[in-house]
Amino acid sequence: MSSSTFSWLRMAGLALAAVLAAGCASTQSAAPTAASTTAAPAPTAAAPVRVKVFVAAMFEIGQNTGDRAGEFQHWYERYWRSSAPIAVKGALSPVYCNADGVCGAVLGMGKVNSSSSMQAILLDPRFDFSESYYILSGVAGTPPSRGTIGMVSWATWLVDYDLGHRWAPEENTAGAPTFMPRKGYENYRRFQLNPALVGWAVKLSADTPLADDDKARAYRLRYPDAAARRAPFVGTGTHMTGDTFFHGPGLSKQAQYIAKLYGADDYVITEMEAAAITLVINRTHGTSRVMSLRGAVNFDQGNPRETTLAHLDPAPGETAGGFAETVLNIERVGSRVVDHIVVNWPQWRAGVPPMAP
C-alpha cells in the first residue's frame, strides 16, 4: 500500500468518525426529558346522542320546510328547525336531533329502502338507541269498509303482505284465496305491537282535533260505506306492509284474509315499510317500544261505480283530496305522544309505564 493511499484512508476514517459522533450527539440532544415522556391525552369522542324518541318518515316532497309538505315537513318544523343535519353512511337522508333527545329522518319508500336506512342509523355509534321509542309515520291507503280519507291509525299489528305464495285467480277455484303462507317466515311476517304502548298512544291522541277539506268530504260520498263517509278520526288496527300498491276489492279482501290468517286484527291500513323497519329494530332492540302511525290519503279500491283501473288512473280533478290535511293530522296526533314521553321521561325511560285505571 502506498503512503498516499494510507493517507487517504486515514483522512476518510477521521471524516466518518466525525459524522458518527455528530449523529450520536444529535440523538442524545433529541432524547425526551422526563416531562415530555407523558403522552398527551387522546381527544375525547363526543358522547352519543341518547335518543328518547325517533320519528321516521318515508319521503319528503321537496325541502324540509317552506314548500308543499310531505311526510317529514311538519315533524321537522316542530322539532328540528334549528338542528344541524347528521349524515349517516348507508342512510338515505340525514338524521336530525334536538336537545330533548327527539331525533328523526326520512328513511325512503319501500321495504328495502326504509329498512336499510334504519339499520345504518341504528348501527351508527353517534346515537344511543338503548332506551328509544320509535314512531314510524307516513301516509297510506285504507279500505272503505274500515277507514276514511284524513283518518290517522295506530297499528296494533304489522303484517307483511308479500311473504308467501300467490297465484293468478284464473288458476284457482272461483272465489277461493290466491295466497298461501310459506314456511320459514313465521318470525318475519307479523309483529304484534306492544298493547300497553298502543293503549297509551290512543289515550294521548284520541281527542286530537283533525283537519279536513271540502274536496275530501265530497269524495267520501262516492262510497256507500259508513266508515268511508266518516270525518277523520283516530283509530287502530292492522297495518299491511307490501311493496305493491295493491288496488281493487279483490286484493283488499285478500289483505283482510291474510290478517285473519295470521291471527291479527282487522286490516285497516296499507303501507310499504313498517313491518320491514320493525324487523330491523327487533334484531337490535326488540319491538316493545315501536309504534306505527299512518294517515289515510286514499281508498284501496274504487267506489262501486268505478273500475279498479279508473281508480288507479283517475281523470283530472277526480282524486280524493285531503293530502295536505292528512300529513298535518299525522304530526298532530304523533306529537302528543312524543311530547308526553319526553316530558315524563323518568317514568318512560325504563319501559312503558302502567296506565292509571
From TrEMBL:
Any one biological process term the GO annotation gives: nucleoside metabolic process
Gene3D superfamilies xrefs: Nucleoside phosphorylase domain (3.40.50.1580)
Entry's Gene Ontology molecular function annotations: catalytic activity
Keywords: Signal
Signal peptide interval: 1-17
Domain of life: Bacteria
Name assigned to this protein: Purine nucleoside permease
Source lineage: Bacteria, Pseudomonadati, Pseudomonadota, Betaproteobacteria, Burkholderiales
